Amino acid sequence: MPPKPTSDWVSNKTTIEACERSCADGTSVGETIESSRTMEYHVPVMLAESIEGLNLRPDGTYVDATFGGGGHSRAIMERLGDGGRLYAFDQDEDALPNAIDDARFTLLNENFKYLKSFLRLHGVRQIDGLLADLGVSSHQFDEGTRGFTFRTDGTLDLRMDRRQEYSAFDVVNTLPEENLKNILSLYGELPNAGAMAHAIVTARKKKDIETTFELRDAVQRHLPRQQENKFLAMLFQAVRIEVNGELEALKDLLKQASEILKPGGRLVVISYHSLEDRLVKNFMKTGNFEGELKKDFYGNPLVPFKVVSRKAVTPSADELERNNRSRSAKLRIAEKISQEKENID
After folding, report:
1. In sequence order, which residues have a C-beta less than 8 Å from that of residue 23 and are 6 or more positions away?
2. Structural domains in the chain?
3. pTM value?
4. Which of 10, 53, 81, 301 makes a 20 to 30 Å CA pair with 324?
């Protein structure tokens, strides 16, 4: 079984150095190389905090809704006994080679918005816990060719699932200016969304905008000095959310999680921007995305969860030093309550 990820592995040590450390403790070279590859694909954020938040049972059934490099999944697997099961979801085919070779593990190459359907195909109707790390993986940022970053020139794609047809190229080159403005405003929270949308439409009249650098150049004059990277990040976030339907998928996941979690089961979610975090916070607190607390005839709150983390958990100073990409992460934890408990409270 793969060894537990440690802070040493999160650093930029070579695979050979990792082998020298791990193999001295009896870990096989194959296991060490597999875990090293996982860390190169994506460094799991707040690993210890999220695993603790799940309150794992050795014989429980769990879901990792965002498998990626498999760092969180491997930590979960280490704590499961022979009767435990872990089902992982990832719509990006690039994550498939990271699958864990263990009979207790199943990796599904699907969007987590289909959570209930695919679990039922495997005979699972209830689970003991679900973890979702909503961030874009380091692999997707670093690969460059798929357009997830404005720092390298790549195809204007931004699809998490390359089986779908709708891409960033379609968003940037075909949507009406008003629609584009709304996307940049709602999903990117850009204060100058109208000006950026107009600049994009003006540029695409001359020729299609096909690459990340061409999109960057189209809005260049609307990037405030010394805030260029911030505004570009907001722009690319907006287009990515639109392409992948991320917020609607998150809503689907949260609603389905509340339906299949057993009483006492834990929901652990790591978000990276205010749009995601607001949905997660409201849903955990009130059971809806508007944050409106609803009550029954007797005045009892109608909520599916007990909030475990009253405030969002954020990365430690040590983790921020090791992994700068974790800086915007917020982790929230909630526990499913039974209807009886709901009415008593």
Report:
1. 29, 32
2. 1-41 (no CATH), 46-138+263-344 (3.40.50.150), 142-246 (1.10.150.170)
3. 0.85
4. 53
